[in-house]
Amino acid sequence: xxxxxxxxxTPIGNLEDITLRxxxxxxxxxxxxxxxxxxxxxxxxxxxxxKPLISYHRHNEEIKTDLLISKLKEGKNIALVSDAGTPVISxxxxxxxxxAIVNQIEVIPIPGACAAINALVASGLTAKEFCFFGFLxxxxxxxxxxxxxxxxxxxxxxxxxxxxxxxNTLKELELILSDRKVVLAKExxxxxxxxxxxxxxxxxxxxxxxKGEFIILIEGNPTKxxxxxxxxxxxxIEEHYEFYEKQGYTKKEIIKKIAxxxxxxxxxxxxxxxxxxx
Length: 278
Ligand code: SAM
Known about the structure:
Organism: Candidatus Merdicola faecigallinarum
Helix content: 40-55%
Subcellular location: Cytoplasm
Structural class: alpha/beta
Bound molecules: S-adenosylmethionine
InterPro entries: 4pyrrol_Mease, 4pyrrol_Methylase_sf, 4pyrrole_Mease_sub1, 4pyrrole_Mease_sub2, rRNA_ssu_MeTfrase_I, SAM_MeTrfase_RsmI_CS
Distance between the termini: 58 Å
Largest sheet: 5 strands, parallel
Family: Belongs to the methyltransferase superfamily. RsmI family.
EC number: 2.1.1.198
Strand content: 15-25%
């Protein structure tokens, strides 16, 4: 019988953020594939788990995928972990997941910490719809294109950034964001956890020399929201309702949103909606 591939989330700072299920899986698998074996060893020692470790990182992903797939085919169960958080999310793992699926090997996610999601839920920015861009590309042309996309994006944008590149990235963002709200989530789950809030200028003034790990969150472009509002208002009331319903809003929220889009009272929408539904 083939083994199973577990994608195991580990803490992003606070070691208490490991789930009971993650511990159980790490105790029970035959092999742990780790982005940095020395780094993961610290966590495993803390959990008193001793297992054969295989390094699996960006630069050996291809060779190690073949090795790990052959082990899985031999019936070995493997847990994939990254240095922090959820593997695959701006971390290695995509290759082995794809190959496992091709080889009809079961892939089981073990949920846990993910920096982007935790930054988003405490940011105060809308989480109804959001765009995760991971790290901005280094290539100049691609980077410019991505920044342009962020400038036009009407959903909350989430970016990862390395601490030594943060200052430069914030400078670039200042050129495209005007007064949009920005949140910088620093050192999540650690002693110096902090959320900076304001427009990009305020944030740059507040942080000084950045120390620690950061996530950048940006409010959607309100102008683009106006444009999409205009498009929505050309829909019938039912189509407008369906648009928000598909996004998971409740009836009460939808009526409020339609009224706001169309600049009329909630009651008016409610009455129209009742009439049309009859
Ligand atoms: N896979 C990870 C996850 O699930 O979040 C992300 C790995 S990515 C290589 C590392 C980036 O995530 C950092 O540069 C930073 O932007 C963000 N990050 C990770 N841990 C963080 C933390 N404790 N606080 C703030 N940002 C963090």
